[in-house]
Write a structure and sequence with these properties.
2 copies of one chain form a homodimer. Chain A is built from 5 helices and 3 strands; from the N terminus they run ααβααββα. The relative contact order of chain A is 0.18. By secondary structure, the first copy, chain A, is mainly alpha-helical. In chain A, helix 2 crosses helix 3 and helix 2 packs across helix 5. A 3-stranded antiparallel beta sheet of chain A has the order 1-3-2. At the A-B interface, helix 2 and helix 5 of A face helix 2 and helix 5 of B. Chain A binds a DNA duplex through helix 2, helix 3 and helix 4.
DNA sequence: TTGTATTATGTAGTTATACGACATATAGCC
DNA sequence: GGCTATATGTCGTATAACTACATAATACAA
C-alpha cells in the first residue's frame, strides 16, 4: 500500500501535527474537539490557535493523512460541523513519528543527558 | 540563574537544533564536526545542509544557547575554525526538550499507539 | 430579553526556520 | 594537476506556526 518512502517523506512532524494525528487516532473528531483534546493531552501546554488548527487540517487533507468522515451526514443545525479521521497512511506516519521520537530520546540517553522538568 | 520561563520559551526545538545541542553536550566542536556527528547520531537519516547548519549556529549564539569557545586560540592554518560549546542555558534547554519528547512518546502509549519502523 | 460564555469554523498578514543552490578556500593524496 | 575531504558562509524559497480579525449558533443566567 504505502512504501517506507511515502511515510518518511512526511517526517518529522511538527508538534502541532503530531498532536492532531494522535488526537484522531483514537476516534474521529471535528476541529474544535481536536483543539480541546490536544490541550488535555498536553496538560494545557499546547493550545492550538484556530489559524494553526484549520491551516493544519487543510494541509493534512491535501497530504492524505486525514479524511473527512461525515460526507452525506445530516448537518443538524447551523454551521457545518466537519468530522475528520486518520487515513491508513496517516496512522502509519504517526507510528513512524513515535518511533523517531523514541530514537531522539535514546540518542540523548546514550550521551548521558538525563531529562529534567 | 535561568527561570523555567527562560527555558520553556526556547521549546520546542526543531530536529536540527536538537541534534546540534546534543552534539555539543558531550564536547565542544566546530561546525563541520557537528555536521558529521549529527549524521552519525541519526544513522545518516539527518544530513545538515550548510545553509541550515550555519544559520542555526548564528541563531543559537544570538539566543544564548551556545558560545564561541576558541576566543584567543591560535588559528593554526588557513581559514578560521570556530569552536562552539553549550551555555548553561543551552544545557538546561536540551534537558527540558528530552523531557518534552519523552512526554510525547508517553502520550502516544496512553492512546495505544505502538511505534513501527 | 439581553448579554455573555462556549462551541464552531475560517482568513490575512507576519515571522521563523529548514532547505537547496551557489560560493570560497585549504589540506592531503594519488 | 586533479580529486576528495575538510571547512565556512550567503541567498532565495518554501513551509508552517502565530496573532489578530471575522462570523455564527447554542446555552445559560441575570
Amino acid at each position: 500500500m504505502h512504501t517506507i518512502e511515502d511515510i518518511q517523506a512526511n517526517l518529522p512532524l511538527t508538534e502541532v501535527t503530531y498532536f492532531i494525528l494522535l488526537s484522531l487516532a483514537s476516534a474521529q473528531k471535528h476541529g474544535y474537539a481536536i483543539m480541546k483534546d490536544v490541550e488535555a493531552m498536553s496538560h494545557k501546554r499546547v493550545s492550538l490557535s484556530t489559524g494553526t488548527l484549520y491551516g493544519a487540517l487543510k494541509r493534512l487533507l491535501e497530504q492524505g493523512l486525514i479524511l473527512r468522515s461525515d460526507e452525506g451526514e445530516t448537518n443538524h443545525s447551523g454551521r457545518t460541523r466537519k468530522n475528520y479521521r486518520l487515513t491508513e497512511l496517516g496512522y502509519r506516519v504517526l507510528q513512524a513519528e513515535v518511533h523517531r521520537l523514541d530514537n531522539l530520546v535514546t540518542a540523548a540517553q546514550l550521551r548521558s543527558i538525563h531529562e529534567s522538568a
